[in-house]
Amino acid sequence: TMKNPVPQAASLLLEKLLLLVHIRPLPAGSGEETPPPAPSYYDTSCFKRGDLLEVPRTLFIHFGIYLGENRVAHLMPDILPAITGDRRQIQQVVTNKRLILGVIARTASVRVDMVEDFAYGGSILVNHMDRLFEDQVLGSEEAACRAEKLVGATAYSLLWNNCEHFVTYCRYGAPVSFQTEKFCETVKMIIRDQRSVLASVLVGLASIICLGVAPSTTLPTIFIPFFLWMAG
C-alpha cells in the first residue's frame, strides 16, 4: 500500500520554511541562547577583505561578506530597525524573537558583526560560490565597498531580498538566491501533488503571512483542492 504523503510533505515544508527565519537552535531544556564561541575560535588570517563567507546549517546556509579586521557584513531579518533608531540596541546580537518578528514584518538590516557572532559556532566556507559564477567575480575591494554601502535597515523578502541576494550582489554584481529557487521548486512540487492538500494549505498560509502576498495564479491551486477535500 502507498504511504500517505501528507505527513511527509508537511514535514518537508516545515523544514524548508525554516529558511525564512534563520532560527538558531537552542540547547535542550534552556530558554537562553547559547553564547557565541570565544574570539580565538576562528582563524581569520586566511580571510581577505571582500571574501564571501558561508556558514552551512542543518537546513540552510547563511552568507556574509568579510570586511577585514574580524568583521562581517550580513543581512538578517530584524524587527528593531523598524521600531527604534537606537544603534546600541540594534547592534546587539539578534535574538530568535527579533528574527521571527522581522520576518513577519518583512524588515531586516545589513549589519556588521564579528566573525564569531556571524558564524555562531558553525564551520565557514570561503568563496565557495565562485565556481558557480565563473568570470562574474568582482574585485575584492569593490565587493567589500558594496557591502559597506548597504549597511543599515532594509526590507526583507525570502524571494527578493535575503542574505544570499545580498552577498551575490556584492561579489558577483547580480542578486541571486539558489536556496530560494530550491524552496520554490519544493513548494511547486507540493502544490502539484493533489494528495498533499494539507501541505498545500500550509504553503498558502505561510506565503500570505511571511511573504505578504501569494501569486493570484497560485491561490486557486492552493485552496480549491482544500475545499474539495473538505467536501469529500
Automatic annotation (TrEMBL):
Residues 52-179 form the LRAT domain. GO terms for biological process: retinol metabolic process; visual perception; vitamin A metabolic process. The chain crosses the membrane at residues 197-230. It is a single-pass membrane protein. Its EC number is 2.3.1.135. Transfers the acyl group from the sn-1 position of phosphatidylcholine to all-trans retinol, producing all-trans retinyl esters. Retinyl esters are storage forms of vitamin A. LRAT plays a critical role in vision. It provides the all-trans retinyl ester substrates for the isomerohydrolase which processes the esters into 11-cis-retinol in the retinal pigment epithelium; due to a membrane-associated alcohol dehydrogenase, 11 cis-retinol is oxidized and converted into 11-cis-retinaldehyde which is the chromophore for rhodopsin and the cone photopigments. PANTHER family: LECITHIN RETINOL ACYLTRANSFERASE. This is Lecithin retinol acyltransferase. The lineage of its organism: Eukaryota, Metazoa, Chordata, Craniata, Vertebrata. The gene is Lrat.
